[in-house]
Structures are given as structure tokens and as C-alpha cells.
Design brief:
The protein is built from 8 helices and 3 strands. It is mainly alpha-helical. The protein has 2 domains: 179 residues, no CATH class; 48 residues, no CATH class. The longest helix has 30 residues. The N terminus is likely disordered. The structure holds zinc ion.
Length: 235
């Protein structure tokens, strides 16, 4: 089936780091030795360090939020979001990448991430259940690809690219902006995946049964052909 250019599936992470030649033992999307983003052919995009994420993104964001009197931060986010960045990330060479498209998160995904998920959910609920607030951020210390919980939910990673992103990772005109196009709820993906093969298997079993009946002489050749054609049509 012809797929639009933005939907081209991204390659599996390399088995060996193209920059430092370390084997990719964990199957992660970053090199564990030199931090290279293994899907990046320009060999310049890296995994964001803990320091950069905690101080250069998280804490700096809080500072900018209050220093700009909140309103300023929202206006700033309106400019940075379409490029997969928040105000703090735009000052510290960080980008949010959607792991399914391999490109920067769309503006909608950034608003959902920075405002709805991190801002409202984690911040407000975090005051009531402090553990949730901490678990979100601390998750990255135990995660292979250094994803926080909000990264996991939105299927995102944070990369460090001081020289900017290569063309293949930048936003592409015409790509879907809607968050729903990327994310499927668990029940959506399972029902669609499970129902289709099950039906084919059912038809195959019916065909085998039909062949057995014919072989044992229980139905005529005409009856067999007629029923077989009906079954094939069902597929
Ligand atoms: Zn490496």
C-alpha cells in the first residue's frame, strides 16, 4: 500500500553504533557508550544528559514560567511548539522527537505534553500525590531510552542537537498535526490487530473441513466447489 512520505516507517536501531562502533546490546535507540541517537545519519544528534534535562529543561522551565509572568511563557511556547521545543528546550539545544515518525513532535503534541500533561496533570495532581510527580521525572533514571512517564505516554524522546537537527528529523509540511494520528488507545490497537487474523484462520479451518468432507465422499464435487467459492468470498 502506498504510504505518504511522513508515514515511512523509521529503521530499527542499528546493531552497532556508526560513530564509536560499540555494539547495541540493549536494542535501545541511543548508543550507551557515546550517547549517539542511532537513527541519525548525520551522527550529530545525541541523547539528552540527565543534567541537561533536569537543570536545562525542567528547572529552567519553572524559572522561565514565573519570570515571564506565565503569559509570556505561553506566548513563547506558541512559537517553539511547532518545532518540537519548549521555551527552556529552545535555549538548551534540546528537541522532542516522536519515536514513531522519527521527526520532531508536532505543535499539538507539544501543547499536550508541556501544558496538558506536564503542566496540568503532573503539576496539579502532583501536589495531591507527590509520588506521582516524582515518579514521572525519576522514571528516566531507570529507562533504557531515558524516557520519563510523560515521554512514554506520548511516545517521545528528548535529544540534544547543538548544531540543529538534520533535515530528516525536522517537521515536514503536510505531516499530520493531530496527536490522535500517532497515538492509539490500547483497546483500539488490540481490537484491530486481533480481529483480522482470527477471521482468516476461521475460513482456513472451514476450508480444511470442507476438503475432508469431499475426500471422504460425504459431499459431491459440485457441492464442494460451491461451498468453497462461498468461503473464499467471505475472506
Ligand atoms: Zn556510540
Amino acid at each position: 500500500m502506498a504510504q505518504p512520505a511522513y508515514a515511512v516507517p523509521i529503521a530499527e536501531p542499528a546493531a552497532e553504533c556508526p560513530r564509536c562502533r560499540a555494539p547495541n546490546i540493549t536494542g535501545g535507540i541511543f548508543c550507551d557508550r557515546c550517547n549517539l541517537y542511532l537513527r541519525d545519519e548525520s551522527l550529530s544528534v545525541e541523547r539528552a544528559s540527565y543534567t541537561r534535562r533536569i537543570f536545562g529543561s525542567y528547572l529552567l522551565e519553572q524559572l522561565l514560567f514565573w519570570v515571564t509572568l506565565i503569559v509570556g511563557w505561553f506566548i513563547w511556547l506558541a512559537f517553539t511548539a511547532p518545532r518540537g521545543r519548549s521555551p527552556a528546550k529552545s535555549l538548551t539545544s534540546l528537541y522532542v522527537i516522536n519515536i514513531e515518525t522519527g521527526r520532531t513532535a508536532s505543535g499539538g503534541e507539544m501543547w499536550l505534553r508541556e501544558f496538558a500533561l506536564k503542566g496540568l496533570t503532573m503539576f496539579l495532581i502532583g501536589y495531591m500525590i507527590p509520588f506521582l510527580f516524582l515518579a514521572d521525572a525519576f522514571w528516566m533514571f531507570f529507562d533504557r531510552d531515558r524516557q520519563t512517564l510523560h515521554d512514554k505516554i506520548l511516545k517521545q524522546i528528548v535529544v540534544y542537537a547543538p548544531a540543529g537537527l538534520p533535515e530528516s528529523m525536522r517537521p515536514q509540511p503536510g505531516a499530520p498535526r493531530k496527536y490522535a494520528a500517532v497515538y492509539a488507545w490500547p483497546w483500539q490497537s488490540t481490537s484491530a490487530a486481533a480481529s483480522a487474523p482470527a477471521r482468516v484462520t476461521d475460513v482456513a479451518a472451514d476450508l480444511r473441513e470442507l476438503t475432508r468432507l469431499k475426500d471422504e465422499g460425504l459431499i459431491t464435487a459440485e457441492e464442494f466447489e460451491e461451498k468453497r467459492a462461498a468461503l473464499v468470498e467471505k475472506m
